[in-house]
Amino acid sequence: MTDDLDAETLAFAHRMFDLARAGSTEELAAQVDAGLPVNLTNDKGDTLLILAAYHSHPDTVAALLARGADHTRANDRGQTALAAAVFRSSADAVRALLAAGADPAHGTPSAAETAQFFDLPEMAELLRAG
Known about the structure:
single chain; mainly alpha; Serine Threonine Protein Phosphatase 5, Tetratricopeptide repeat; 8 helices; Ankyrin repeat domain-containing protein; repeat; Ankyrin_rpt
């Protein structure tokens, strides 16, 4: 699929993924507001939301969710944004994802399984209370 995209478009997409990784909430939100697909996905299946969650940027997670990001999407390894946020012990991101309806049992491994495997009792409690 990327063979159909020119170098400028690919560079722009890479920059958008970098904004998600860096937690550049305002700039990324402005790009989504201007028409960037909120569920843009890279070659590994990572969405902007998954990257923001994995890199512990709860404000970016919340902004993407407010713009319709799909919290049910999993990357090519079956990982969800909620599992990523749990893995990083990002309580605010976990709360935002749960408030948006993210399912702790969805994904491989699921967020609940991630909390158990990595012995993250605070995250497990958040998921139960969610």
